[in-house]
Amino acid sequence: MRPEFGGGSYGWGRGAARERPRATIKDVSLSRILRLFQPYWKMLAVILALALSSALIGLGPPLVMREIIDKAIPNRDKEFLIFMICLMVLLPLSSGLLGVLQNYLNTKVGQAVMRDLRHKLFHNLQRQSMSFFTNSRSGEVIQRITGDVQMVQSVVTTMVVQAITQIVIVVTTIGIMFMMDWRLSLIAVVILPVFILPVRKVASLRKQMRLETQRVRSEMTSHLNETFGVSGAMLTRIFGREERQQKIFTHLNQRSMDLELKLNLVGRWFNMFTNILGPLGSALIFAYGGFGAMSGTMTIGAIVAFTQYLGRLYNPISSLLNLHIEVGTALGIFQRIFEFQDMEPDVRDSPGARELPPVEGHIALERVSFFYQPEKAALRNISFSVEPGQLVALVGPSGAGKSTLIGLFARLYDPSEGKVLIDGYDVRDVTLRSLRQQIAFVTQESYLFHATVRENLLFAREDATQEEIEDACRKAYIHDLIQSFPDGYDTLVGERGHRLSGGERQRLAIARAILKNPRILILDEATSHLDSESEAYVQRALEELMKGRTTLVIAHRLSTILAADKILVMKKGRIIEQGTHHELLLKGGTYAGLYHTQFDLVSGE
Predict the structure, then answer these.
(1) Do residues 184 and 317 touch, judged by C-beta distance below 8 A?
(2) Which of 36, 63, 498, 510 could form a disulfide with 541 if both were Cys (CB 3.0 to 4.6 A apart)?
(3) pLDDT given for residue 421 in this prediction
(4) How far apart are the C-alpha atoms of 510 and 508, rounded to whole Å?
């Protein structure tokens, strides 16, 4: 189970700003895309059999037409004519029925591949550490898992099956054409290289244009998420920046439109070029075959049948050329998808990692340093220990490294140097799941999902009973409030919990942490930004939560940590003072200065 950390406190970003891991994909091979279909080879075999059967049946109508023109009508053979007419209807009908089944299996395989692709992408994104998310815009992530995957859907659902079908049709058609007349067949195929040569260039051009289009769409999705999220919408209105946000969207929207127009234009020019294939081939056949018919070396029925086969030859070849273009275009999108799919998390279970047993709560850092840039340390040579059940406070100015430090315990990222120990276990030697099951976070603005109160609580522990949920809420002093809602525990809290007040959200987050029952608790100034009444409720709830647990607190208001067992004063990534409140006051150092400054301001008010 992943740890509870608030969406509103983005302290992890400072320590996580290192370059996120990226897949090094220079290009995407077609073989890798084809491997997506490997689990469904049996269905593909059936599709191939259906395509072959349909293609063979499709060879019949031109031959039937030849027999009608050259034999049935000239010989006035009514029975043979009726038989041939029946075949003209039955053959396409049979081919159509096979096509329906083939299309169903085709769609099933394609959708299964899309499902697998989305699943793998989501799974790998779930494995990434916080450094990835603090360096990514959420819109970009969403665009890749939805928009990008959607863009390749038509290619995935048609590529393999259409390629198989069209190749079967081409091979069988060329075979029967050469059986009929090898000279006409040579004329029919000699013009093909003229149409095949431009394919590579067009595919490369469309690939680059599609990459740029998807990049712009990612920016647009990110802008929409930021603008129309509750916090973004509120900020836009408070500062009256609607016009600015509109201008940014208008620019991105226009850019997306221009790129799509260029992409479409390239495709249309190529389609126009390939559409000449059929008429040109037919003209050559009629020119050669017409003179043959005049001289008596070829029948009119044979010429008509041959031109019918030209359609069966050129249309599939045109489809294959267009498919090659579409695949080339889609390679750019696959590159974006595989880039995220291939990323290795910088925080993961080490080989041979074992389960962390239930801990007492002894934690220690041994000479820990953390660099988010090579030339600048967020933490430098930090060492301290905390006994089970103790309350330890971290104080210091913004940028001192407090949030970076507490993120190390749940392995939101790993130290560059040194060790983080829990009950003597190096956190890198135990599984992430077993480690995070024993740690809970409550932050300044704890995140709530757009779901019911109950669903938000069950996020901590899915198997919790209603009695356990209510007990946790009573300890967090929020049960009575929830019961007063018309829908009780089934009340929707709104996006990010904005239907609740700040104090109510905090108490609900505390109830969630109580339900998780962690041995180690991390509080990132959970009472800041609250009014006096809400703070009183939250403080009482926190006292219940901290009972018997090892607790680390990031404190900005020193009045909340006077009873801490140990206070660590941080500055520029180092611990410069440590001790109890009274010990630090007697030293007259940085802590004493901070304390007197805060309380002088309070008394002055």
Answers:
(1) no
(2) 510
(3) 93
(4) 5
Q: What H or E segment, with its residue span, contains residue 252?
A: helix 242-275
Amino acid letter for position 290? G
Cα 10 to Cα 5, 15, 134, 149, 407, distances in angstroms: 10, 10, 8, 29, 11
CB atoms within 10 A of CB 402: 27
* Dihedral sign (CA 129, 134, 139, 143): negative
Token output for 156: 């995935």
**Tokens 């929020």 map to which residue?**
478
> Which token pair is 269?
């020019």
Under 8 Å CB-to-CB from 444, ≥6 apart: which residues?
Answer: 6, 8, 9, 524, 525, 526, 528, 529
3-state helix, strand, coil in the chain (%, to 5): 65, 10, 25
For residue 366, count other CB atoms closer than 10 A to its CB: 16
Give the separation between CA 473 and CA 305, rounded to whole angstroms.
81
Q: What is the DSSP letter of 1?
A: -
Contact 551, 379 (CB under 8 A): no
Bridge partners of 368? 382
Is residue 383 a contact partner of residue 365, using CB atoms and an 8 Å limit?
Answer: yes
Sheet holding 391-395, edge to edge: 439-442, 520-524, 550-554, 391-395, 566-571, 574-579
Q: Residues with Cβ < 8 Å from 564, sequence gap 6 or more?
A: 391, 392, 393, 553, 580, 581
Alpha-carbon span 480 to 486, nearest angstrom: 12
Full-model pTM? 0.67
> For the segment 272-321, what is each residue's pLDDT rounded down to a tens digit?
665 665 566 667 777 777 776 677 666 777 777 777 777 777 777 777 77
For 540-560, the pLDDT digits (tens) are 777 777 888 899 988 877 777
Q: What tokens does 242 get?
A: 């609607």
Note the pLDDT of residue 106: 81
Phi-psi region of 399 (alpha: psi -120 to 50; beta: other; left: phi over 0): left
Q: Which residues of the chain have pLDDT under 50?
A: 1-25, 601-605
- The amino acid present at 394, given as its one-letter code, is L
Question: How many CA atoms are closer than 13 Å to the CA of 36, on its beta-carbon side?
Answer: 29
Q: What are phi and psi of 554, to 5 degrees?
A: -90, 120
Provide the 8-state DSSP code for 451. Answer: S
Strands 363-373, 439-442: pairing kind: unpaired
- CA atoms of 569 and 577, how far apart (whole Å): 5
Q: Are 388 and 361 in contact (CB under 8 A)?
A: yes
Distance CA 103, CA 110 (A): 10
Task: Output DSSP code: residue 143.
Answer: I
Question: For residues 322 and 274, what is the distance between their CA atoms, to the nearest angstrom?
Answer: 9
pLDDT at residue number 240: 65
For the chain, which domains are there? 20-341 (1.20.1560.10), 363-448+519-604 (3.40.50.300)
The partner residues of 261 in beta bridges, in order of sequence, read none
Residue 344 tokens read as 């290795």
Residue-level pLDDT at 600: 59
pLDDT the model gives residue 17: 38
Q: What is the pLDDT of residue 294?
A: 75
pLDDT for the residue numbered 531: 60
